[in-house]
Amino acid sequence: MIVRSRSPLRLGLAGGGTDISPYCDTYGGSVLNATINMYANCTIELVPDEQGITFIAQDIQQQFHTPLASHIPLSGELMLHKAVYNRIVRDYNDNQPIAMKVYTFSDAPPGCGLGSSSTMVVTILSAYKELLKLPLSEYDVAKMAYEIERIDCGFSGGKQDQYATTFGGFNYMEFYECDRVIVNPLRIRDSIINELESQMILYFTGVSRSSAKIIDEQIKGTKVPNSSSLDAMHQVKRLSYAMKECLLKSDIDGMSTLFKEAWLAKKGMSSSISTASIDDLEDRVLSAGAKSMKITGAGGGGFIMLFVDPIHRLTVEKTLKALDGRIQPFHFTQQGTQSWTV
Predict the structure, then answer these.
(1) Residues noted as catalytic
(2) 60-104 residue pLDDT tens
(3) Which of 54, 59, 245, 246 has minimal Cβ neighbours within 10 Å of its Cβ?
(4) Which of 6, 1, 40 has its CA nearest to residue 133?
(5) pLDDT given for residue 297 in this prediction
(6) Residues forming a β-bridge with 330
(7) Is this prediction's pTM over 0.85?
């Protein structure tokens, strides 16, 4: 038996960082995001018991094998793969081990700012859901993915990525204490999506980074009353409301202007969010005709979103092509995680 799954990566349009505890527990967080046609992919193949358990992450060229076991220690490489297996076997297979080969690959590298690690957890979970015919809702899958990544593995981060890839499309998300999450799907007209795609450029800086340090700095700043970091976080949240309103009203110029404000506020959350090379890139693209730019994700590298009038698009793209990264073509997608049996 073979099952496959794929889950879309996301762009963080506004509010990123306010989904991280303890900020969202104390003040409430809100995030506007949208999924795109870049995916994390998984294939699970059942094998005879004597072949044991094998995880193969094809994109990062890592592999793990163990004889049949109901629990795999969470150490070394491919911790996320191991943690998902452990949770599924414990909670949904009566602690009975499963002989299998799990193949995964992502269209974007880890640490790129598109939520690739969380998306990979969701897509592996989605494959197990199909394999075992588990009656799990979108909220169930996203919450479990969050617990696996943040609690079982102890990795720093927020909550938006797991919910974005599970639900898919344009979503306005609210985050509260006790891990309460409300996902508000937005109905965006095709004409608005077309205009957004015509005005946005997605650019990979070529630098992948660990988000843990930046996130830990944000958490530290959140705990200091009246700190500049906390004020910046409040501003980021306020801008998510305004960005949602512009999107729903097809005010793309308004979104572009808010991007400027959001980028300034985001940089105020941590000194590690921007770098000298990112500042130089910003100067170059704005001089070439871009209206605004902002990093998607924690910062420090990864992907950058730019707003540009289509009349100036080729000029901005020419400027970007002279740098070390690459332009990433994309389209918005309305579907979340999907799984099927071959």
Answers:
(1) 161
(2) 999 999 999 999 999 999 999 999 999 999 999 999 999 999 999
(3) 245
(4) 1
(5) 76
(6) none
(7) yes
